[in-house]
């Protein structure tokens, strides 16, 4: 069991001892720290925070603790109840709120939960803001309101519908074309809030939605991370139902994966590639993904005469880079679509609508769409190091060794070779280096990773 405190929030397993796990005491402490930061940062008389949660078993308990802590600090709360991460993100500016909190541990198993923290734009906090909240929590530097100044909770369960309306109104979402295509789609909502939002969106788009694990009871029927090894049921159901494709989301609906009509994975990396292909065909511009995402996005961007940029890993870093280069679309290779015309956050509803429009316009199958893109394969491995090794020095030596290649050191070390790339990142919690590689075949990606592990061991003397 564990508790992880970071600039992006607090994440941990339910139960156990305070400070070691995500207990009620920890939930209250970090909600209070967020409230203290909000009041010191914005310095006004009335504060409002939007709060929503995924369908985890512990969600209602954690949400009640968080909301009542905020009202104890004199902050008013808009309670969205069962919601999605992108829905809370769009609700914050729509409500003119000062911030937002999402209770979700994203793709982690059911024993986990977390507080994800948003600013007044509905975007994740940056490093400096997160650090302040950690300091408030560490020092218990917060003051609660007097009885006459307590906040109030206002329930609003309309925001998933409002979110869908916002998606349908996007200029590049062609509702008429999607309806005319008469798609049939299987949806795996992993028994969380995607089981509410995605079928409802599809129905509004005239798509026949076949539901699989769409009961939001928090009993995840498989590992909730949308990876191939966890998705046998939907792969089979797409074929059995003769559906056009399948849609899979994680518990808080910010990661999106597709299954083609043959029951094969479209590939999480290619979710962003396909959506970007469509958007760039309609609207010229630049794209951004993180350093560990597929080179295919770069290739597609160049095909459309745009410029591709890479950021450090982490949604807040992708968003910062997107704003800097005025990207028209971006995201992460884990199936996260960030479309600024909607908002600066990963959004599976937006991604689904853009993908449907792309398919409706092209009038081809999902497998044919995948075949039209540059084909790349990834290997993701790690190497355990001895605790006394200085990982930063080791990474610096690796960067120097390949200095004749295209090297980035903004997040670990990424080396772009002509035919493949390698990204080395250290763990923040243990002496581990993660090795990501991508090449034109799986064998090549695996071989490059193994060669890189051997080189690291040689330089480290292990």
UniProtKB/TrEMBL annotation:
<dbReference type="InterPro" id="IPR016066">
    <property type="entry name" value="A-D-PHexomutase_CS"/>
</dbReference>
<dbReference type="GO" id="GO:0000287">
    <property type="term" value="F:magnesium ion binding"/>
</dbReference>
<dbReference type="InterPro" id="IPR005841">
    <property type="entry name" value="Alpha-D-phosphohexomutase_SF"/>
</dbReference>
<dbReference type="Pfam" id="PF00408">
    <property type="entry name" value="PGM_PMM_IV"/>
</dbReference>
<dbReference type="InterPro" id="IPR016055">
    <property type="entry name" value="A-D-PHexomutase_a/b/a-I/II/III"/>
</dbReference>
<dbReference type="Pfam" id="PF02878">
    <property type="entry name" value="PGM_PMM_I"/>
</dbReference>
<keyword id="KW-0460">Magnesium</keyword>
<dbReference type="GO" id="GO:0005975">
    <property type="term" value="P:carbohydrate metabolic process"/>
</dbReference>
<protein>
    <submittedName>
        <fullName>Phosphoglucosamine mutase</fullName>
        <ecNumber>5.4.2.10</ecNumber>
    </submittedName>
</protein>
<dbReference type="InterPro" id="IPR050060">
    <property type="entry name" value="Phosphoglucosamine_mutase"/>
</dbReference>
<dbReference type="GO" id="GO:0006048">
    <property type="term" value="P:UDP-N-acetylglucosamine biosynthetic process"/>
</dbReference>
<keyword id="KW-0597">Phosphoprotein</keyword>
<dbReference type="InterPro" id="IPR005844">
    <property type="entry name" value="A-D-PHexomutase_a/b/a-I"/>
</dbReference>
<dbReference type="Pfam" id="PF02879">
    <property type="entry name" value="PGM_PMM_II"/>
</dbReference>
<dbReference type="InterPro" id="IPR005843">
    <property type="entry name" value="A-D-PHexomutase_C"/>
</dbReference>
<feature type="domain" description="Alpha-D-phosphohexomutase alpha/beta/alpha">
    <location>
        <begin position="8"/>
        <end position="142"/>
    </location>
</feature>
<dbReference type="GO" id="GO:0008966">
    <property type="term" value="F:phosphoglucosamine mutase activity"/>
</dbReference>
<keyword id="KW-0479">Metal-binding</keyword>
<feature type="domain" description="Alpha-D-phosphohexomutase alpha/beta/alpha">
    <location>
        <begin position="171"/>
        <end position="263"/>
    </location>
</feature>
<keyword id="KW-0413">Isomerase</keyword>
<dbReference type="InterPro" id="IPR036900">
    <property type="entry name" value="A-D-PHexomutase_C_sf"/>
</dbReference>
<dbReference type="GO" id="GO:0009252">
    <property type="term" value="P:peptidoglycan biosynthetic process"/>
</dbReference>
<comment type="similarity">
    <text>Belongs to the phosphohexose mutase family.</text>
</comment>
<dbReference type="InterPro" id="IPR005846">
    <property type="entry name" value="A-D-PHexomutase_a/b/a-III"/>
</dbReference>
<dbReference type="InterPro" id="IPR005845">
    <property type="entry name" value="A-D-PHexomutase_a/b/a-II"/>
</dbReference>
<dbReference type="GO" id="GO:0005829">
    <property type="term" value="C:cytosol"/>
</dbReference>
<dbReference type="InterPro" id="IPR024086">
    <property type="entry name" value="GlmM_arc-type"/>
</dbReference>
<feature type="domain" description="Alpha-D-phosphohexomutase alpha/beta/alpha">
    <location>
        <begin position="270"/>
        <end position="375"/>
    </location>
</feature>
<dbReference type="Pfam" id="PF02880">
    <property type="entry name" value="PGM_PMM_III"/>
</dbReference>
<dbReference type="GO" id="GO:0004615">
    <property type="term" value="F:phosphomannomutase activity"/>
</dbReference>
<feature type="domain" description="Alpha-D-phosphohexomutase C-terminal">
    <location>
        <begin position="400"/>
        <end position="453"/>
    </location>
</feature>
């Amino acid at each position: 069991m564990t508790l992880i405190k970071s600039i992006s929030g607090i994440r941990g397993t339910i139960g156990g001892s305070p400070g070691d796990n995500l207990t009620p005491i920890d939930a209250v402490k970090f909600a209070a720290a967020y409230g203290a930061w909000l009041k010191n940062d914005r310095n006004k008389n009335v504060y409002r925070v939007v709060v929503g949660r995924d369908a985890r078993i512990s969600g209602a308990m954690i949400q009640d603790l968080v909301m009542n802590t905020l009202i104890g600090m004199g902050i008013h709360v808009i309670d969205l109840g069962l919601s999605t991460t992108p829905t809370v993100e769009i609700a914050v500016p729509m409500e003119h709120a000062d911030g937002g909190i999402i209770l979700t541990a994203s793709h982690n198993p059911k024993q986990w939960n977390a507080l994800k923290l948003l600013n007044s734009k509905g975007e994740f906090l940056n490093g400096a803001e997160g650090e302040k909240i950690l300091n408030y929590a560490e020092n218990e530097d917060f003051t609660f309101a007097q009885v006459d100044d307590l906040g109030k909770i206002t329930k609003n369960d309309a925001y998933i519908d409002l979110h869908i309306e916002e998606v349908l109104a996007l200029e590049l979402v062609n509702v008429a074309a999607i309806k005319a295509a008469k798609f049939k789609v299987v949806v795996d909502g992993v028994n969380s809030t995607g089981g509410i939002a995605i079928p409802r969106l599809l129905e509004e788009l005239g798509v026949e939605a076949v539901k699989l694990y769409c009961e939001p009871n928090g009993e995840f029927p498989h590992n909730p991370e949308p990876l191939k090894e966890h998705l046998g049921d939907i792969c089979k159901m797409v074929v059995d139902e003769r559906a056009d494709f399948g849609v899979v989301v994680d518990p808080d609906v910010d990661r999106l994966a597709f299954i083609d009509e043959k029951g094969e994975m479209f590939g999480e990396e290619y979710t962003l590639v396909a959506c970007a292909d469509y958007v760039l065909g309609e609207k010229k511009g630049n794209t951004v993904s993180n350093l560990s995402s597929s080179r295919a996005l770069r290739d597609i961007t160049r095909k459309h005469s745009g410029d591709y940029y890479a950021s450090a890993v982490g949604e807040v870093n992708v968003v910062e880079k997107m704003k800097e280069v005025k990207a028209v679309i971006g995201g992460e290779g884990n199936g996260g679509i960030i479309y600024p015309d909607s908002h600066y956050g990963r959004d599976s509803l937006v991604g689904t609508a853009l993908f449907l429009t792309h398919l409706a316009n092209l009038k081809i199958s999902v497998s044919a769409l995948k075949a039209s893109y540059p084909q790349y394969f990834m290997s993701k491995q790690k190497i355990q190091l001895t605790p006394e090794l200085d990982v930063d020095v080791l990474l610096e030596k690796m960067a120097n060794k390949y200095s004749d290649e295209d090297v980035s050191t903004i997040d670990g070390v990424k080396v772009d070779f002509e035919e493949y790339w390698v990204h080395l990142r250290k763990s923040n919690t243990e002496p581990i280096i993660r090795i990501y590689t991508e090449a034109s075949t799986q064998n090549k990606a695996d071989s490059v990773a193994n060669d890189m592990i051997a080189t690291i061991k040689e330089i480290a003397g292990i």
